[in-house]
Specification:
7-stranded antiparallel sheet; 9-stranded antiparallel sheet; 3 helices
Length: about 280
């Protein structure tokens, strides 16, 4: 089979220049910056809003009046009735999950930079050298296991980076049990940014109006070097190979069912992560 690749000689400077990965549930846009990597993530059930019935039966007579006017050929009058009496609140909005950040500690000049996306396999690669040492990254999202895998490697044990997570949504991050947890919530309502209003993003205090909650987790397996777990970040020191493993889950069930409280989404690693990658490739 012929191989198809997208190849670039510089990192992405904007979201539309980053390379997309996904499995139908988890999506990622990888920027490929050698010093400050950004992986913009989303999950397909994260929307603003909460379970409710927006049908308003008292508006039905306006529909009948508009229909009669249309049959009489008076389309403008029908449109006016519908605009004034037959429109409800704005639809809810899709929410971005957040960004995984990797800040690397390279002290030399970045040379021989390349990033590419293998269209046949859905694997994204970044490679470059610093003072003659080759650094590589390999990233994909597994459909079967619903995880994002990011492999970091260097020709010498010189991979040093801090891993953290940020989000525009209400969230918190914390290292616990040698993992980084991300817990957050979508807003109860989000108005479109082109609507003139006082508050575009709204979080309700009422229990029945709580938005969708989510929990993400980052785990690391290192071949050598040291992994440090600080308050809200994971630090890799002097590694030649390490693998990051990201999973996320929300409490969404159905559009008309109020979600239940969400417990932490613990990872299910079938075997050693390094062995898993070998089997995948």
């Amino acid at each position: 089979m012929k191989e198809y690749e997208l190849i670039y000689r510089r990192p992405a400077s904007a979201w539309l220049e980053s390379l997309p990965l996904g499995n139908g549930r988890i999506g990622a846009m990888v920027f490929g910056d050698p010093l400050h990597e950004r992986i913009a993530l989303n999950e397909d059930t994260l929307w603003s809003g909460y379970a409710k019935n927006n049908n308003e039966e008292e508006r039905y007579p306006y529909y009948e009046r508009a229909r009669d006017l249309i049959l009489q050929g008076n389309n403008f009058a029908a449109q006016k009735i519908l605009d004034e009496n037959f429109t409800g609140e704005w639809n809810e909005s899709y929410m971005p999950l957040g960004d995984m950040r990797l800040d690397f500690q390279h002290r030399g000049e970045i040379c021989n930079y390349q990033r590419k996306l293998h269209l046949n396999s859905g694997v994204m690669n970044v490679s470059y050298t610093v003072e003659g040492v080759l650094f590589e990254r390999e990233c994909f999202i597994s459909f079967l296991d619903n995880i994002l895998v990011l492999k970091l490697s260097s020709a010498r044990p010189q991979t040093n980076c801090d891993i953290s997570f940020t989000s525009l949504l209400k969230h918190s991050t914390k290292c616990s049990e040698e993992k980084l947890y991300i817990e957050g919530q979508c807003p109860s309502h989000a108005e479109p940014n082109y609507v003139d209003c006082k508050e575009h993003i709204f979080y309700s205090e009422k229990e029945q109006e709580q938005g969708i909650s989510f929990c993400g987790i980052v785990a690391v397996e290192n071949k050598d070097g040291t992994v440090l777990y600080e308050k809200n970040r994971i630090c890799l020191r002097n590694c030649s190979q390490a693998v990051l493993y990201f999973s996320v889950k929300s409490n969404f069930e159905r559009y008309d069912i109020r979600p239940k409280p969400l417990a932490r989404a613990y990872l299910n690693i079938p075997t050693s992560i390094l062995q898993f990658i070998v089997q995948f490739r």
